[in-house]
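Figure 6 in text form: structure in, sequence out.
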């Protein structure tokens, strides 16, 4: 029986690639990549010659069965996404679940993921938090916001740049203009920045300066009456 490795890749800065990740990618029989063109640049940079197959959100339902057969035949396979840790708002869950069901060993390497540095450098409470990933596009979006309006833990969202202003406006609408917000952009890259303030202040900033790049938004949880009394 082979083994599935979930291998994080850099979210921007190639120096964030670990020695262990490089060694695993060199030693496995096959690499499953979200986009073989994107991953090809990474593999070339680190002189990794392992063969790649495409494994992404549009074909993973069809490819899982074949991958399981190869693992059962004794092949070791690594799964990578375009950036960050597989299965965190990227393909990986379906294959991991199938491996667990078939008693195939799965090992996830530690490594880069965008929401952890965004949470830590936000300055918001991080002893307890909830990761929401990408919000629903249309159906269920309002319902989700109404639920999250009562959430007392710090909340983390992935937001595409062209939807950030709209999302910040929704933060103001559902969470209140004074709710603390931190938006991190282009983490680990040359133009990395983090903008902190109230929801209204951060909205005003990005409304005047449209954002570019990968974005993580961190929002403080609702303060309860008990907590207000402590203050």
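Output sequence:
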């Amino acid at each position: 029986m082979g083994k599935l490795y979930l291998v994080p890749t850099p979210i921007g800065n190639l120096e964030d690639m670990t020695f262990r990740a490089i060694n695993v990618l060199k030693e496995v029989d096959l690499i499953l990549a979200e986009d073989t063109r994107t991953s090809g640049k990474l593999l070339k940079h680190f002189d990794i010659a392992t063969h790649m197959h495409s494994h992404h959100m549009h074909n993973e339902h069809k490819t899982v069965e074949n991958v399981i057969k190869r693992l059962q035949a004794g092949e070791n396979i690594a799964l990578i996404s375009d950036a960050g840790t597989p299965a965190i708002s990227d393909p990986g869950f379906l294959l991991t679940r199938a491996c667990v069901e078939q008693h195939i060993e799965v090992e996830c390497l530690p490594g880069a993921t965008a929401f952890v540095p965004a949470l830590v450098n936000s300055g918001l409470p991080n002893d307890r938090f909830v990761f929401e990933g990408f919000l629903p596009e249309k159906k269920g979006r309002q319902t989700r916001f109404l639920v999250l309006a009562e959430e007392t833990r710090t909340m983390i969202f992935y937001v595409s740049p062209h939807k950030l202003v709209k999302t910040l406006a929704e933060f103001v609408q559902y969470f209140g203009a004074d709710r603390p917000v931190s938006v991190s952009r282009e983490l680990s890259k040359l133009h990395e920045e983090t903008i902190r303030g109230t929801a209204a202040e951060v909205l005003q900033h990005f409304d005047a300066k449209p954002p570019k790049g990968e974005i993580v938004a961190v929002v403080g949880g609702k303060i309860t009456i008990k907590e207000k009394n402590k203050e």
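Caption detail: The two ends are 57 Å apart (CA to CA).
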